[in-house]
Amino acid sequence: MKGLQAFFWFTDIGFLLYWTVTFLGLIPPEYLYQDYRDPNLIAWNLSFLPLDLLISITGLASLYAYRKGRKSWQPLALVSLVLTFCSGLQAIAFWTFAGDFDPAWWIPNLYLLLYPLWFLPRFLRGHELQTKCPVN
After folding, report:
1. How far apart are CA 26 and CA 29, in angstroms?
2. pLDDT tens digit string along 21-39?
3. What is the torsional sign of CA 113, 117, 118, 124?
4. In angstroms, rounded to a whole number, what is the distance separating the alpha carbons of residues 67 and 100?
5. Rounded to an integer, what distance in angstroms lies between the CA atom of residue 120 and that of residue 19?
6. Helix or strand run (H / E) with residue 3
7. Please, are residues 11 and 53 in contact by the beta-carbon 8 Å criterion?
8. Residue 52 · residue 19 · CB < 8 Å
9. What mean pLDDT, rounded, does the chain reach?
10. 66 and 37 Cβ atoms separated by less than 8 Å
């Protein structure tokens, strides 16, 4: 969890800062995505808000549970990692289909896509999946 903690702090606080800055309109226009005034792209960007907030909530809750010595940190961390991967994948897929290869948007989204892939195998290693059906 020690290496993962830094990624969770960076990512979860980063999402909260990004959405705060976005809603306050503090990102200079030259750093915004292509066609940022298009209502469909505004809606597309806002569609990530619930996902990104859920990532932050589960990541920060995992850090809290870990600090308190609760085993619930593990499923919370797993959910946060999977959702982070999904967020990055959706953004990269969109920018690919749109043909927009701006590094300012690709680099952070590649980070979201790739860093969970480093931790997920380590996180799941040694954990046996439940194969027994809970309902008889």
Report:
1. 9
2. 999 989 887 777 777 788 8
3. positive
4. 41
5. 26
6. helix 2-24
7. no
8. yes
9. 88
10. no
